[in-house]
Design brief:
alpha/beta, Rossmann fold, eight-stranded mixed beta sheet, binds S-adenosyl-L-homocysteine
Length: 251
């Protein structure tokens, strides 16, 4: 099994595949001003098994296209949506976020929690803008420095892993540079990382390793997740996910 298949196997059964919470998704919805509108068209990009998709479907009068390149996540989303009676307003689409099939100016909102980093914040903002109607909303969570200065080793780590890591004001400037006006921002609280993401993930390590006969590749996946968790636990005051909500300006 290659690394992507192992990662998919480890993450598929989790409540979510990245930091977040239903409550924070609802806060972002409130800040977006989308409540009260009817017949919205929304894309949830890099939706994973759909933690945020299902909140959007419950909270808004919308048809949501949930996009991910891993069909096994989408299968779980389809099954959960059906069980909750949300399948009428959620459609799943297996596609890559760098070649999305939406028509220009067809969406009221683009949602993406913990996923835009896969093509990079700036590239994603630029590429996805054209799919939004004038005045449309983009809502994304993104790795962000929460302090002006931080330990050198931490900075080196993230600059190597994700060179676009930056401060809130720098991310806002990227949005403004590419035709968006920020309407809201907040940082995800620690529980979104620890209780909702890392702790459930850690509780699956043992069964994951057994399933894969403690292979070297499976052990390497767990080791790398443990390193990431230790880094967060040691430095959560310095970095986290910022949730950015912005409105498209112009057409
Ligand atoms: N939004 C979900 C998942 C976040 S994890 C949540 O918050 O729980 C990031 C997701 O992006 C994963 O589901 C992964 O399969 C997906 N992904 C990574 N690269 C992608 C790409 N190029 N195109 C589409 N989806 C991608």
């Amino acid at each position: 099994m290659d690394e992507l298949a192992l990662l998919s196997d480890l993450h598929r059964d989790g409540p979510r595949q990245g930091p977040g919470s239903d409550e924070e998704t609802r806060l972002a919805i409130t800040l977006s001003g989308l409540r009260g509108s009817s017949d919205l068209r929304i894309a949830d990009i890099g939706c994973g098994s759909g933690a945020s998709t299902r909140v959007l479907a419950r909270e808004l009068d919308a048809t949501i296209t949930a996009v991910d390149f891993l069909p096994e996540f989408l299968q779980r989303l389809d099954a959960d949506a059906q069980q909750e009676g949300l399948d009428g307003c959620i459609e799943t689409l297996a596609a890559s976020m760098d070649s999305l099939p939406f028509d220009a100016r067809s969406l009221d909102a683009i949602w993406s929690e913990g996923a835009i980093y896969n093509i990079g914040f700036e590239a994603g903002i630029r590429a996805w803008r054209r799919f939004l109607k004038p005045g449309g909303i983009i809502a994304v969570s993104e790795l962000t420095w929460l302090t002006h200065a931080r330990p050198e080793a931490l900075e080196r780590h993230w600059v190597r892993e994700y060179p676009e890591v930056d401060t809130v004001s720098a991310k806002m400037a990227v949005l403004e540079r590419h035709g968006f006006s920020p309407v809201g921002y907040f940082a995800l609280p620690e529980r979104c990382w620890l209780e909702n993401y890392y702790h459930p993930l850690q509780s699956r390590f043992e069964t994951f390793l057994s399933r894969h006969g403690h292979s070297a590749a499976a052990l390497a996946v767990v080791e790398s997740e443990e390193e990431e968790i230790a880094l967060y636990e040691g430095h959560s005051t310095h970095f986290g996910y910022g949730f950015y909500i912005a409105r498209k300006t112009g057409d």
